[in-house]
Amino acid sequence: GQSAVFFVGGVITGASQVAHGMVLVGDFNIIRYPSERLGCESFSSAMFAFFNFIESNSLVDLPLEGAFFTWFRDSSIPSMSRIDRALVSLDWEKHFENISQRVLLHVISDHCPLLLEAGVVRQGHSAFKFENMWLQAEGFVDRVQQWWVGYSFTGSPSFILA
């Protein structure tokens, strides 16, 4: 309840200081929707605070694959909920293709481990590639020298080379 609201408030302060995307993964010890806890039928103030934290920080609550719940308590009255999750910023989501979080089997802990798969990094431009065989092509080296001399750059040597 109250500790969850305080925790979310603390993370919001830290989250605003991150400039280039972020990933938050772990046991948040709170659910976002009533359907994420077995037998839960209504929203609590802590759930609203958690929902608002995700929305106000433009985070993406990644879909869960492999299971619906991440925490289990085996007792006379079974208890299950999704309190573990990965939240990513929009910048981070845009940087990777096919991001997913997969629930793995829990063996020792009552929490299931999560596997965050980021897929392939999206690249705006393809990287420059150089093939050594180009050096064998007649006139290639002369052509590169002509191009190199034809350009004029100012700046540090590393900038000029880049």
From TrEMBL:
Superkingdom as given in the UniProt entry: Eukaryota
InterPro entries to which the protein is assigned, alphabetical: Endo/exonu/phosph_ase_sf
Protein name, UniProt field: Endonuclease/exonuclease/phosphatase
